[in-house]
Design goal:
Shape: globular
Number of helices: 6
Distance between the termini: 76 Å
Helix content: 25-40%
Radius of gyration: 20 Å
Strand order of the largest sheet: 1-2-4-3-5-6-7-8
Number of strands: 8
Length: 245
């Protein structure tokens, strides 16, 4: 009887430790740098709305193209507000999705229903950063007919989207978080003509505004420079995609 009590106590301690560890992991994330974000935002020709479900909507005048964005794992999704605003300033309706515990893996289907809210949008793209990009790729692989393209930032697809979809992949030359071996291995899941951009001096963290991510390299360009380069490449890709270049 005594041994059984000891065993039950040990099991209880292990369970409590696991629950506590999981709670700590899920609650811990890279916070958005609100002060820097505020310095980037100028609200020129873009209306930013925080919706009831927590998603952010970046609305330009009379958009015909939409972009749904899944944030990186363990990153406060508000860190991507500058990137979304910059894309919206170029005429793209952007929807920044809020994820449970800042992990897109907990809501792979977060894009469901978003398109129906904007019936005037003719062309849709989806993408994300890091884990968010991989989850967006997994989602779009099951909804190919609903999207024109996929945009991956410091990310890769483990799902087969090698046909019927335009794909843009961007990462920084100083990105030490992205596993390049897995990235190159998973290129087989992308179309042969996918567009790849390597930002010279860019890093993994600078697609958002949340400081330095553990394990990342040292960038040689500024945070805003990387966001601007990324925006330019996204807009160029979308234009090429829609004009069949």
């Amino acid at each position: 009887m005594k041994k059984k009590k000891i065993l039950l106590l040990v099991i209880l301690i292990i369970c409590i430790s696991l629950i506590g560890g999981s709670a700590y992991y899920l609650s811990d994330s890279y916070p958005a740098n609100q002060e820097e974000i505020a310095s980037y935002i100028d609200n020129t020709n873009v209306t930013i709305n925080k919706l009831d479900n927590g998603n952010y909507e970046f609305m330009p005048s009379n958009p015909t193209t939409g972009f749904i964005f899944y944030p990186g794992g363990k990153v406060d999704y508000e860190a991507y507000i500058p990137l979304m605003e910059q894309c919206a300033k170029q005429g793209i309706l952007c929807v920044l999705v809020k994820m449970p515990f800042n992990l897109a893996v907990f809501d792979l289907n977060a894009a469901d229903g978003i398109q129906a809210q904007y019936p005037d949008i003719e062309n849709w793209y989806i993408g994300g950063h890091s884990l968010g990009g991989s989850m967006a790729a997994s989602y779009v692989s099951k909804h190919i007919e609903d999207y024109r393209g996929l945009i991956l930032l410091g990310s890769y697809s483990t799902s087969d989207i090698s046909s019927e979809l335009d794909v843009l992949s961007i990462y920084g030359s100083e990105d030490h978080v992205l596993n390049l071996d897995k990235y190159n291995e998973n290129k087989k899941h992308l179309p042969d003509d996918f567009k790849e951009i390597i930002i010279e001096g860019g890093c993994h963290s600078y697609f958002g505004v949340y400081g330095h991510q553990e394990g990342d390299g040292n960038p040689t360009i500024s945070n805003f420079e990387q966001i601007q380069i990324t925006t330019d490449e996204i807009i160029s890709f979308i234009k090429e995609s829609q004009h069949g270049v």
